[in-house]
Known about the structure:
- The protein is mostly beta strands.
- The chain has one helix spanning 103-106, and strands at residues 3-6, 9-12, 17-23, 30-36, 43-49, 56-58, 66-71, 76-81, 90-97, 114-115, 119-124.
- The strands form two sheets. Strands 2, 4, 5, 6, 9, 10 and 11 form a seven-stranded mixed beta sheet that branches.
- The radius of gyration is 13 Å and the shape is globular.
Amino acid sequence: xxxxxxxxxxxxxxxxxxxxxxxxxxxxxxxxxxxxxxxxxxxxxxxxxxxxxxxxxxxxxxxxxxxxxxxxxxxxxxxxxxxxxxxxxxxxxxxxxxxxxxxxxxxxxxxxxxxxxxxxxxxxx
Length: 125
């Protein structure tokens, strides 16, 4: 499975941005977003279940500003990011797993079978 993330760019603080992640196959159950800045661990943001209950699980740090959605017909998940802050500057990665899991698993990069190439989001002050 290949994941293609897109939508990153340079925005100003307070702006919004929507990221997209398209999977090449309809075989994954979970699609998630992480982000990473230099020298830091990759940070979990949100996990979306593409099947079953369609659950969405957010990290506390972003659940009031970021919203995930999906379009199963397009094998795509989106991340709508509002009220962006300079500290949101990072490379955003899309990840996919064959299964849904407990929250502790969904937050771990080791749970995921596939990763996209990352898309850079830069928020200027």
